[in-house]
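Reposting from the mailing list since nobody answered there.

I have sequence plus structure tokens for a pair of proteins and want to know whether others read the tokens the same way I do. The first protein:
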Amino acid sequence: MVVNDSVTKEGITKDQMRISEFCGLTLRDIDLENKVINIDHQLQRTSDMRLVIESTKTNAGTRKLPMTEDVAQCFRTISEDREELKCERVVDGYTRFLFTDKNGYPEVAMHWEHRFNHMVKRYNDIYRVQIPNTTPHICRHTYCRNMAKSGMNPKLLQYLMEHSDIGVTLNTYTHLGLEDATDELRRMEELGSARKELEKNEEENEEEKPVSQKMFRAI
């Protein structure tokens, strides 16, 4: 979520991905012309510190994510700011990763977890109201819940989050509470009022007398 300001702005797209998918992104995966991100692999680091490329967690994980214009602009900036290395690191045939460390190796989940911990600590050192520990996975879960609260189609959310089982996605909706229910009922009430107003206007227009030449008689 945070490498520079531009990455923060494209957090909505990052949160659709698992952190291992995000770390595995290469320049080739970002189609700025069509505003599409290709997800077909993930980057992992093994217990013996080897970097490996694996397939996505599930069959549903292989997918293409659309980008809004502001997200595309963020990736454009990231691509332009990325330092071209004299010797690009290659991991199982993949190279030119978007995010690399000082030695040119692609960053892994641990880098982002440390970055999040650092941000939380700095914030809590300054402000009285403390924020809890935050991880990339928490951001992903929060995104999923917010999209559910906004009324996103469950099947679309399932696709974006790469849930192989719709039950996992629907479980997000079942965790919505009283406040969410109140907001949804208020929204439906406003929608009903708007529909009634529209129907009323249509009826009034139908009752109006048709225009005739007599209406325009010279006085």
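The second protein, same order (residues first, tokens after):
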Amino acid sequence: MRKRFAAIISAALCLLFLFPFTACGESGTLIGYTSYAYFNTSAVWAFRSENGKETDADAAVWEQIKTRLGEIENSVSSEAEESSIARFNRAAAGETVQIDGTAYALLLQAKEMYVKTEGAYNPAVGLLVDLWGFSPRFTGTEGAADPQPYDTLVHYDSNGDGEEDAYKFVLPQEKYLTAFRNLSDFSAVELFEKDGEYFAKKPNTAFAVVADETGTEHTYTMQLNLGGIGKGYAVDEAERLIRAAGYRFGYFNLGASSMCVLRDFRNKDEAWEIGLGNPRLSERFPVSEYGTVKQTDISLSSSGDYEQYHMIEGRRHCHIINPFTGYPINAQPQNAKGSGIIVASVFGLSAAEGDATTTALMVMGKEKALAYLAEKLPEKQFVFIYYNGEDDSYTVYTNMNDSSLFGIVSGMATEKI
């Protein structure tokens, strides 16, 4: 599933996301490559060139990056039928599945983040993601492929003429919400290595039997979804290849949710100015970025509720699922006003850890997120927006100084931590 950082590098006067990414400077030109072949999003590598042209060495590194992106996607994407994660998801409760080294390494990182965030980051919510309509089954526009008894995407009569001519999402049935929430104990997944091969065992208890509307019983087992960490892991791998090849300037961006920035050779301090995407673009906040950060030689990650969501009964239901309630964040019935964190960004972690962390912060909510950041990440920079539905106000919380975070959009208060 995609989550969008919406980071727009705005140094100088050039739009760097436009191929071929040329930008004038005193000591070379910024050029680069782009591809839409991986993770259903754009992969962008921009780098410094002396004469504005790529070299054979540049092209070779780009091929290495694409090869590694393909390996990661084929390993952990639930869309790839023979990926390690897809095979784990098809396995019965108690079954052990052989997985590849990439899936093993990524699942180990996911385990670490699950423990560190006390379950706020949890990749075992795959069935809940599907229940709310954010899995790969729903990437089409004509309804879900392979319909399931619990589907919340329904065909209905939109204009009262007696014909079902449109689709809409409705709230799920409680029996499915409860059953799928109870299948999300990621701590019970066993990972082990034996004789140079890697394995994952689905918990014996990770199954539920639910009767559909006709009384027919269906068995469901735990499903993993690594969308909250997989692209970050891919960014880390791309950065490893880029730095190993000796590049010091430029950036790599995957889907605008995760990116690593090296240095900007056109600026004296060699830092990039990066726009933070506005999660509530409207007449009230008409600018595309709610603020700007200045960063160099660092990885950036963000999560938000504004890229993927459904409006159900007048309320926003986004793709980030709270594993403790089974509901999308900020959409629990008791939170009638939709208060909560609506976008969060962290700087200085690995991209994989950053992706998992921002997802967890969104789940935690304001008070727990601030406590977590103070206790677990006191040296890292962060910024998030909290929406208070009671008085319809927005507040930016951050520990960044005014020279690192500036240009906050008018109408948003700022709390320095």
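Reply #1 (J.P.):
I read it the same way you do. The helical segments are 56-76, 84-90, 101-116, 126-131, 174-181, 230-244, 351-364, 366-376.
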